[in-house]
Structure formats: C-alpha cells, structure tokens
C-alpha cells in the first residue's frame, strides 16, 4: 500500500482528522489511540496520540482487534464457497459434526441469525484461559439456542468459533495457518497475527471515576479464538479496508465482497440504521446532507484492554481504521465513521469523466433501439444505455421501480438492485428481429401504454372516453 505523501490530503482535512482523534483520546481517557484513512486503495493519512510524552504509536504498532477477526474468518468461508467446497445453505453438521447446533446453516452463522446464545459456558471467556473450554462440542451447558434459527439477528461469538473450526476441518490445517497463507500474505498483512508481536500496545482498564488505570490480562482463548483473537496495525487494517471495498482476485472477488455487504439480518426493534451481512457489519451514518445517510460497512471489535474499528464507504472510495488500548473509552464506531465523514465532506470524491461508449457498440443499432420510453401498463419508464452496455430503468414521474441491469453474454440483462435484483430483462423479438416488448420478470413493457400489438396479458380493450 502506498504510504501517505505530504500532499495526500489538504492541510485543513489533516487538521480536522488530527483534532478528531485528539479529542477521542482525551475525552475517551485512553492511554493511546492510532487511526488511518484510505482513499481509492491508498493510505492517505495516519495519526496517533498517547499519554506518554515523547512517544507516539505509529502504523506498525500492533493492537488487539477483537471481533474484526470475524471478518477474516468470514472471507475464508466465502473462499470455500466460491471454490465449491460448501454451500451457504449447508447445515454446519454436514462438514463439521459434533457441535451442539449442527442444524444451523453457514449463512446463519455468518450473519448471526442462527439463534445461538451469544457466549459460551463458563466464566467470561475473553478473560479466562481457553483450557476451561477445551472441546468445541461442549461450548454450551444444555441450551445452545435462545431464538429459533433464521428468525432474528442475535450476535453470537460462539458461532464464529464453529466457523473457524470449519475452516480448519476443510483445509486440514489450523485456521491461523490457513488465514496466513490464503488471506493475509497475499494482501501484504504480515503484521496481522493471532498473538502480539513487538512493537505492540499493552491493554489497560481506566477507572470510571478517577484518572488511574490497571493492566488487563492477556489470555489465550482456545477454541473461541476465531471470534476475537487477532492483533493488527493501522497499516495492515488499511490494506484490509481497501480489500473489503474493491476485492483482490488472489483472495476474494469484488462481486463476492459485494454479496457479503448485502444485508442478511433484519435490524432489531428501533435500530433501523444498522444491519449485518455475511460477516460484515452495516451501518447508516446519519451525518450527511439530504437526510439519506452514508452507507458504511466493516466491523468493530473489543477485547479486555482494546477497542477497534474498520469501516468503508464504497461509494466514496474511503476507508478508516481506529485502534485504542483501553477497555472502555471513546465510542469507536462514531470515531471511525467520523474519520470517513471528515474526508468526504472536506474533499468529496471527484467523479470519473463521462466517456461515450466504444465506436463498435455505438454502431449497434439494435442496442440503441432499446433505449427511450417504455410502459408497464400505463406507467412510463425510461431505459438508458451506458458505455459498458449496462442499462438503467427509471420511472418517469417519480413513481415506480427503478433498477440497474448488468449485460449477460446471451443478450439478456440481470437486475442489480431494487425490486428486480437478480431478475432477467429480456427483449422479445419477432422472426425478423423487431423487438415487440421487454419481458422483465414476466412483466411486459411496451412502447405504448397497453400497446395492442404486444402480448399484454388479458388483452387490451383500447382507450375510451367517458
């Protein structure tokens, strides 16, 4: 990853970012805090604050990242899926027998909709030795589930213990070795490790009513490690943010990462600004003009002595990382989101220049003939063609179902968003090649409202006055 140059961001932007992390370190009463910002795959800013005079942690200082570990596991599970070794609809027991909830599907475990209880049996697993829970098949006492599977989101650390064991089972090697070989090394994340490697921060707890602190214990969590064991740096997590946004075919494609960012779990109760995909947290940051909010994806993490966050804004090409070494400190989610917001507002993304389609495609009269107004019944739509042969269907007058469509080799298009996601748009032609109508998920779109020359279901009676 490219290191930040002196002019990577404007001075006012850098000042605002520094002010935000300085405020977080001071008001959050955290011994140290490091942060970084990525734009279009490059590290464009990093900063650090500490309570020790003359010392500041840098992009190579390790912090424990807690549940950001889960995103590493999720990416590896999706690698197994893309290789055809598993299906996300498979029950866990098909590949990993001997657990207490083998009927949960892999998709449910990834999205925290399996119904599993949040924590394993025994004392607080994050602060006790994993030897207290030596067997994967005995992580619970007698009641592993607290909700019916597939019904609701309920965060479960234990579900990722199962997924880590699944990776090890199918690869025939410890999950840490698999992650290093297949995920971390290809992405250049040599400083992301299951245990601390110097230089690293120590974890602290700060007294809630006094400016004193005590060290947190460093524990080996055993079979629960896939839920939150890893350590990393802002430099490595900047690489991870860039990967989550754009993909890397050596690890996982951009299309699969986009699938992981799709909501798979309904938000709970009044929390309609957050959801969960396949191992990815999804939030809508309300701090944006026009009231639409900024769509962010990533994950937060906490372990005794540490808080961590990594978020991306795919639309803006931005990512942010924040790491602290305190058990209870700054609101890590707000801090990470604010770093993205500051850059997006100070230096909004400059769009790519418009370019016409290649001459050969522009000469395709049949393709151009598809553009313009179409009608679903009496509702008018416009079909617009883009340089990559993609299509946009837009309601005229503001009412109706809009969608984007990806071209396919067979001459059809596939919906990418909205109501028509995954559905097929197909031009229907006569024997001489003339398009009579569009078939969109069985709906008939015609050139005229209820065109009598098109096969409108139920026929047409003709337009009449009263």
From TrEMBL:
Cross-referenced Pfam families: Beta-lactamase (PF00144), DUF7586 (PF24491)
InterPro entries referenced in this protein's UniProt entry, alphabetically: AmpC-like, Beta-lactam-related, Beta-lactam/transpept-like, DUF7586
All copies of domain DUF7586, residue ranges: 364-447
Residues of the Beta-lactamase-related domain: 21-344
PANTHER family: D-ALANYL-D-ALANINE CARBOXYPEPTIDASE (PTHR46825:SF7), D-ALANYL-D-ALANINE-CARBOXYPEPTIDASE/ENDOPEPTIDASE AMPH (PTHR46825)
Protein name: Beta-lactamase family protein
Lineage: Bacteria, Bacillati, Actinomycetota, Actinomycetes, Kitasatosporales
